[in-house]
Amino acid sequence: MERNLYSLKEIDTNDLISILNRASAFKNGEISHYPDRVVGNLFFEPSTRTQQSFIMAEKKMRIQNMDLYPEGSSLVKGESLYDTVRTFEAIGVDAVVIRSKEDRYYEALRGKVSIPVLNGGDGSGDHPTQSLLDLMTIKEEFGDFSGLKVLIAGDISHSRVAHSNIHIMERLGMKVHLAAPPMFQEKGRMYQDMDEILPEMDIVMMLRVQHERHEVRTVLDPLSYNRSYGMNTDRIEKMKSTAILMHPAPVNRGWEVTDDVVECGRSRILCQMGNGVFVRMAVLERALRESEK
Predict the structure, then answer these.
(1) Of 133, 158, 174, 265, whose CB neighbour count within 10 A is largest?
(2) Which of 6, 2, 280, 293 minimizes the C-alpha distance to 125?
(3) Which pLDDT value is given to residue 103?
(4) Sign of CA dihedral 119, 249, 180, 191
(5) Which domains does the chain have, with CATH numbers?
(6) How far is CA 68 from CA 17, 29, 49, 56, 88, in A?
(7) How far, in Å, are 90, 199, 213 from residue 257 at the CA level?
(8) Containing H/E element for 283?
(9) What are the residue ranges in the chain where pLDDT is below 70?
(10) pLDDT at residue 292, as a whole number
(11) What's the chain's Rg over C-alpha atoms?
(12) Please, which residues bridge with residue 63 across strands?
């Protein structure tokens, strides 16, 4: 039984649906406790929602957690990620959650560590648990995935959320549309005018402008960015009556989404955050449970 979670591209659809079902069960009050297990949270990149929701999930499941603070660890002495993980494994941790600035960091660990590795985000590559919580939120809203139209808009090229979601949403039968400024577009993908397709969309998913990943500050004016590629009251009014607004957060208020829209009636941003705890409970259970005999 696979217990790692590197990328959703590597798990089959039945496994994915099983994770979503377990997350829903946890949200509805089901309990799963592992008081004798220890999980290491190794976040080599800043995080609020992902890190804290993993910690909350661990607390709800009575899992003991060990949290690595890079600035106070041997990383400052030049220790590699691989050696850090092997250290956690050697001292008895049962699984690790890792976020790294490096794309596909987990390749250095694949087949070389015996404990499960849960990807909390790798560079601009993948963010599997974010995609899972997005899918959970969409399933709660619409009941199914097939045939839904979703617009993913913003900083596509730097977004691990986009890279995870485009693949898995298309795999589940959703029609994915993209809109992005030229400097945030990736070659080989088709982009559309946001205002032209907005009235047809069931889901509008905005992406954070990831200033920290840009070699230079490519976007200087939040007002003009929002007018061209962001969500605001005018665009909210153009959406279908049943359509919802999503964003992986943190939100650059005024850039991708204006302040008055972040928590409007169409927004499911806070719902996404809440669902993140239950999704992470489900993937922790998947990692920690004994292999079926």
Answers:
(1) 133
(2) 6
(3) 93
(4) positive
(5) 8-126+274-288 (3.40.50.1370), 128-272 (3.40.50.1370)
(6) 31, 30, 16, 16, 10
(7) 45, 17, 20
(8) helix 269-288
(9) 1, 72-77, 211-220, 290-293
(10) 39
(11) 19
(12) none
Q: DSSP string covering 68-91, please? A: E-GGGSGGGGT--HHHHHHHHHHT
- Give residue-wise pLDDT tens across range 57-102: 999 999 999 998 777 666 666 789 999 999 999 999 999 999 999 9
What's the CA gap between 17 and 72, in Å, rounded?
39
Distance CA 226, CA 258 (A): 8
How far apart, in whole angstroms, are the C-alpha atoms of residue 9 and residue 160? Answer: 13
> pTM higher than 0.70 for the full model?
yes
pLDDT value, residue 245: 98
